[in-house]
Design goal:
431 residues
Length: 431
C-alpha cells in the first residue's frame, strides 16, 4: 500500500507502469501533435511530483499522456488527477479524505469509473480484519458551530421531498465537499474529527442511495466506499457492515451474486447489532436464492427472522427502517427465486400491506415485486393492477429505480393485452 504522501501524479504514472522519462516523452508527443514543442523531461516530471504546479498547457499534455478523457481538467492542480485506477481507495488510517475526494471527483468530472470487484473484495476483507479506530465519543464534542449547521442542514436536505432531489443532491455534495475540506485542512480535537467523520459517512451514504436510485452505479459505489472509510475512522463497525451490505445489494441488483456473497460474508464477520445482522442475513438469503442455493438461503432467512425478533428500539439510525414488512417481502422474493411461488405470493402481499404509508419508494418496489409474482403465477389481471399502482406511485414521488422495475416487466404483459387492466398499463408505460 502506498504512503498517502505520494503525489497524485506519481501515483497515476506508476499505475500506468511509466517511468518519469517515459511520461516526459509522452508529454512531448502530446505537444507535438498540436504542432507545439514542450521541453518536459524527467527532471521536470520530478519537480511536478514534488509539488511544483505545471502550467495550463502542460496539464493538458499530461492528461492526454496519462490516457485520461478530454474534459478531465475541471479542477485545480492536482485535484483532477485520479487517486486510483481500480475505483477503490485502499483501507488505511489516511484513507477517509482521499476516498471522499475520489467520490466528489468522480461526480464533478462526469466520469463513470468502473469499480474493480477484486479491489472491492480486498477492501472489505481488510475492513473485516482491521483494528477498530479508537475515537472519542461524539458526545464530548464542544466546539464547532459550523459542524452544527452542517449536521442540521444535512439531515433536512436528506429528508426533503424526492421532487426536490436534483436541488438537494447538489447541496449535499457541496456540504460533503466542505466536510472533506475541514477534515483535510483543519486542526481538530479527536471528538470534533469523530463528528466530521460521522457526518461525512451520513452524507456520502445518502448520496450513494441517490446515485443508485438514478442508475449511476459507479457514482453510488464511490460514495458507499467513502462512507465506509469514514465510518471506519469513526469506529462504527455496525455502520461499516451496513455500508458493505449496500455495496452487496448493488452487486446483486447488477446480477453479480458471487461478489454480493463475498461482501456480505465480510460484513457479517463483524456486525454485532441484531438489526444489522438481520438486514445482512436477509440480503444474504436473496443472494443464495439467486444462485439456487436452497439450504443456505433458508438458513439465512431463519437467522434474519431470529435477529429481527431480538431487535429493540435502540437500533442504529441507518437501519431503523427495517421492519416485519421488509422481512416478509424479501423472504417472499427469496422463496420466489427458489420456486415456492404460492408461499412467496402470500409473504409479498402481507409485506406490502404492513408497510408504513410514508415509505413510498419502498412501497413502489414492493408492488413491482408483487406484480412480478402474479405474472409468475400466470395471474395477469392482479399483476397489472399492482404494476399500475407501482408505476403511478413511482412517477409521483420521482423514484426512477422503481420505474425501471415496472418497465422491465412490460414485455411480459404483451401476451395479455385483452385482459382487463393490461392494455391500460401498457398505454400508461408508453406515456
Amino acid at each position: 500500500m502506498e504512503h498517502p504522501a505520494v503525489h497524485p501524479l506519481a501515483r497515476a504514472r506508476r499505475a500506468r507502469g511509466l517511468s518519469q522519462d517515459q511520461l516526459a516523452a509522452r508529454v512531448r508527443d502530446s505537444a507535438a501533435r498540436r504542432g507545439l514543442r514542450s521541453g518536459t523531461d524527467a527532471s521536470r516530471i520530478r519537480k511536478w511530483e514534488r509539488g511544483i504546479r505545471p502550467d495550463e498547457d502542460s496539464q493538458t499534455y499530461l492528461a492526454e499522456a496519462l490516457g485520461l478523457p478530454a474534459g478531465t481538467i475541471d479542477a485545480p492542480w492536482p485535484d483532477w488527477l485520479p487517486l486510483t485506477d481500480t475505483g477503490v481507495v485502499p483501507l488505511s488510517m489516511h484513507a477517509p479524505v482521499p476516498a471522499l475526494r475520489e467520490a466528489l471527483r468522480t461526480v464533478d468530472r462526469r466520469t463513470f469509473l468502473t469499480v474493480s470487484s477484486a479491489a472491492l473484495t480486498t477492501l472489505t476483507a481488510d475492513w473485516a480484519t482491521a483494528d477498530t479506530t479508537k475515537t472519542v465519543s461524539a458526545q464530548l464534542a464542544g466546539d464547532g458551530d459550523l459542524i452544527d449547521v452542517l449536521e442540521t442542514s444535512g439531515r433536512q436536505l436528506a429528508a426533503a421531498d424526492p421532487v426536490h432531489h436534483p436541488h438537494t443532491t447538489r447541496l449535499l455534495r457541496e456540504h460533503l465537499a466542505t466536510v472533506t475540506d475541514l477534515l483535510d485542512r483543519g486542526s481538530h480535537s479527536p471528538a470534533t474529527r469523530h463528528r466530521l467523520h460521522t457526518l461525512a459517512a451520513d452524507i456520502a451514504h445518502t448520496l450513494a442511495w441517490r446515485g443508485f436510485d438514478n442508475g449511476d452505479n459507479a457514482h453510488a459505489a464511490q460514495y458507499w466506499i467513502a462512507a465506509l472509510h469514514n465510518s471506519h475512522a469513526a469506529g462504527d463497525t455496525d455502520r461499516g457492515a451496513g455500508l458493505i451490505s449496500d455495496l452487496a445489494y448493488q452487486a446483486a441488483w447488477q446480477g453479480d451474486h458471487a461478489l454480493a456473497g463475498q461482501l456480505l460474508t465480510h460484513a457479517l464477520s463483524r456486525a454485532t447489532h441484531p438489526a444489522a445482522r438481520s438486514l445482512l442475513q436477509l440480503r444474504l438469503a436473496r443472494t443464495h436464492a439467486a444462485r439456487r442455493e436452497t439450504r443456505p438461503a433458508l438458513r439465512a432467512l431463519a437467522a434474519a427472522e431470529r435477529h429481527l425478533a431480538q431487535t429493540a428500539g435502540d437500533r442504529p439510525a441507518w437501519c431503523v427502517w427495517l421492519s416485519d414488512a421488509d422481512l416478509a417481502v424479501d423472504s417472499g422474493q427469496t422463496l420466489l427465486d427458489l420456486g415456492d411461488t404460492a408461499r412467496a405470493h402470500q409473504l409479498i402481499t402481507d409485506g406490502e400491506r404492513l408497510l408504513p404509508a410514508q415509505r413510498g419508494k419502498t412501497r413502489g418496489i414492493f408492488l413491482a415485486y408483487q406484480a412480478a409474482n402474479h405474472l409468475d403465477l400466470k395471474e395477469p389481471e392482479p399483476a397489472a393492477a399492482a404494476a399500475t399502482q407501482s408505476l403511478l406511485l413511482a412517477r409521483r414521488i420521482h423514484a426512477p429505480r422503481c420505474i425501471r422495475l415496472v418497465e422491465d416487466l412490460i414485455p411480459r404483459f404483451q401476451p395479455y393485452r385483452q385482459i382487463p387492466g393490461v392494455n391500460d398499463l401498457l398505454h400508461l408505460a408508453a406515456a
